[in-house]
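Hey,
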Amino acid sequence: MCGHWIRPPPPPPPLLQHRRREAMHSLFSSKSAIRLQHSSFHRISSFFFLKFHSDDSIQLDEATVRETLVSFNNDWKKAFDFFNWVESHHHFRHSTTTYNNILDILAKYFEFDLCWDLIHRMRWNPHSQPDHTTFRLMFHRYASAHAVNDAISTFHRLSQFNLKDHTSFSNLIDALCDHKHVLEAQDIVLGNNKDLLIDAGFIDSVGKTKISNMVLRGWYKMGWWSKCREFWEEMDAKGVHKDLHSYSIYMDILCKSGKSWKAVKLYKNLKSQRIQLDVVVYNIVIRAIGLSQGVDFSIRVFNEMKELGIKPTVVTYNTIMRLLCDSYRHKEALALLNVMRRDDCYPNTVSYHCFFATLEKPKEMIGLFDRMVGSGVRPNMDTYVMLMRKFARWGFLRLVFMVWDKMEQLGCSPDASAYNALIDALVEKGLIDMARKYDEEMLAKGLSPKPRKELGTKFVIHQEEEAQC
């Protein structure tokens, strides 16, 4: 594990040390500490201030540590450096949650051996015992790296942690289905592969309906519509009870496969059987009716849902706003942002993405982005990439850099998609030297750049590209 530790640089001159200590005293005054709670940018910058000039009296709470780790999610070395630093220099006692944060980051970059070192360290600490979440994220990271046998081997090792139970089995199947290993999941469930054999008792304890729903959702995520239909019919043939979740998944499949009218028909059949529907089903129906009949019909179903006493969620509002934005009815969609707050349902990043995807004036997009940040909704990487690509397509390089700078100010470390969006914009403008600089910076971080003839780069296969999710 020592091989992963990053050696600190030599200490700065005494005068610079004194100035930085003064800066840190100011940074951790009461007002600055409050700001630190709300800005990951301050967390990152404060880490580099603190790292080599630390004051042992400074107290770091778990929320600050967790959000700083999240801000380093695209740079595992810095994340791991920070994780060890707060423990050794500030005697911060890591919890299971902070361990899970760092495990997810390390596993994202295939540092699985290091992950297991940490898991065994957790095992002997009464304050940070591994839990189901610990191994759920390991299942997901193994599955995203297409290391199916390692995921299954991990499940078998869980008896060492008293966690080899139906919850872990459910998490394993869910992870495999979530990352397009549905065939392997089916082999486990049906016992078709002797190398993947698992005690049938786990399947019975989870329940055939729940397992079947996971497999159905797995085919949905793969976009294999014929397999979805085949498996749906197979559930009937095998006598598997279909619950409301089964129907909601299949209705979503019908929408995504371009048969939204069939989803509406299935909804009407459920209503005729007097089956009590929930908000998840209504969210899918609102989208299906919007696609097949128009947004005005969706609003009617929305009002019907509210009259039945079913409280809309942020997904409900986002669905209607997306339908309105797709019809270029942005004023009505903006009005919904205020309506949802009155219903104690607050906008999230997806709410604003509905607008960014369809707005066509840079000034409106920048204004809405400022409103988003000002209202406390934190942009994610998809937000930044969407804006940068759109501004680059329109030829506004200054706005691309404005978004890039804002991303760094808000403490979001760029991932491969963000770097590629910026480099593409620079290449398009003929700024090859600057593009090459960012390309090299990207490689130094272990991220996978696109091959570009203009930069003389060739295609190199990196597993990270599939696992950065």
